[in-house]
Amino acid sequence: MYQAIVFLPLLGCIIAAIIAIAGARGRHPGGNPSAGAEDHAHDRGPHSGGGAPSPHGAHAVAHESHHEDGHAHAPAAAGSRPAELVTTLFLFVAAVLSWMAFYRVGFGHQDSREVLLSWIYSGDLKVDWSIRVDTLTAVMLVVVTTVSAFVHLYSIGYMEEDPHRPRFFSYLSLFTFAMLMLVTADNLVQLFFGWEGVGLASYLLIGFWYHKPEANAAAIKAFVVNRVGDFGFALGIFAVFMMTGAVDLDTVFAQAPALTGKTIDFFGWHADAMTLICLLLFMGAMGKSAQFLLHTWLPDAMEGPTPVSALIHAATMVTAGVFMVARLSPLFELAPHAQAFVTLVGATTAFFAATVGLVQNDIKRVVAYSTCSQLGYMFVAMGVGAYSVGMFHLFTHAFFKALLFLGSGSVIHAMHHEQDMRKMGGLRDKLPVTYICMLIGTLALTGFPLTAGYFSKDAIIEAAAAGHNPFAPYAFVMTVAAALLTSFYSWRLVFKTFHGEPADRHAYEHAHESPLTILVPLIFLAAGSILAGFPFKELFAGHQVEEFFRESLKFGPNNHILHDMHEINWMIGIVPTVMMFIGLAVAWQFYIRRPDIP
What we know:
Elements: H1 2-27, H2 80-106, E1 112-122, E2 125-133, H3 135-158, H4 165-183, H5 188-206, H6 213-244, H7 249-255, E3 263-266, E4 269-272, H8 273-288, H9 297-300, H10 306-314, H11 319-327, H12 329-332, H13 336-357, H14 363-383, H15 387-414, H16 432-446, H17 452-466, H18 472-498, H19 505-510, H20 516-531, H21 537-541, H22 545-549, H23 561-564, H24 570-593
């Protein structure tokens, strides 16, 4: 079963790739196409038309207009429909199997380790290709395959006019396979393989419309910035092997306590071994999960098709760093200084990204900076030792962030690929289903009571309040402030897009609700944005954490954060909800009651 979960997406990728190659040869039997023959992604952003440059510079809105200028009716590659159906079917099968694995492993305690083959045997380096499935892996399997399956289904409707759909679906399935290899890794080398695999797939998908200069630049930027983080990650793996002589996780975890007090000579600095190893490993997480200073690639990733944005931001690439820290919790528990640094970076990112989100006008960029901010929340939880709470927010966030991205795509689809919220308005009557789904996603993101985000995000803030590392008080202040800003920019998006008077009457008159292939994923993800919270609260942040996660997460003998967070003053517990309502009230004042103020 576990092999099917991991390799079905790869099989779908290969089938779609064969169809794409055959289709390309059929379209261009004489050789490569001319430079402009397939230009299906003309830029219609602020620099088009020979006008003056946008005053917003690098943050100018790049409109997603990939079906314009007569290329909408370009013939689709032969076999496009089979490629869509095969890849989507395989992902839904993998998703169903993943939920079965979640029940079997999480509740049935049937952890598994399958050795597929011997991979690298060189001197002391021994690496098997294995599939490790414990509760932490099972949670990630559910997140990755469920969101990816609905993104595949959504893409059938969203990309229906693109002539290169087989290539797109092949890339999507490759992305999913790489992430599944990462989360099922039983050793650091295999984890690094998946780590680089999602980096490659993100490059291919962000630059999918490769005739568009902005898409090429964004893809290269994502690839290069992640190389910076990955360099640190690789050094961390080297340091682990140097100190323990192993890369398989069980051996490394068993030997980790013996490294306490040992040092590594690092450019003349006799650094504490565990602290340096964890800082280097976390450097990789900073790049992959777009944390402060290595976050710059994430907003530009919006140049890819909207389904790509949803997959990157909700279920795959950016969650890899959070998963990695949770997986290596036995190491981080022995490096309190590294944990403090994780807390500092996470809290700073949560607040900083929220401030940037306040002033974005591109509907997708607002949601992108929201992702950056929410990842900061997850790292705050990891830094204070509340690993299961961080995973809880990763779990719930996948549903409502995928919903918000795909909902934004539905709006863009209805508005003929317009992304500037200043040119929208009044769309709730034209897009009733999309509006309701976006409303549910916004409620969950802002932490409205009883939604999924309410249980997970508030738990992180409570953990920060109860944390004992030096930056825990700073993290509490930053996450509370970020909760206020998150509420404001989220409701700003809803009010400017769906309420008020239409800014562009012509576009408004021609707006229409999206097809079922787009709406069905929205409806299911909206349900997840509500139901992924309360039913799982005790498993991730309550009294059943130890029984549920067992050995997949390590809480040190002095780590009582899950107990302490339930002992805090009740007034601290309601602060995030108060912040949420204040943000809503201010946004309502600015964009509904007195839209002349901003």
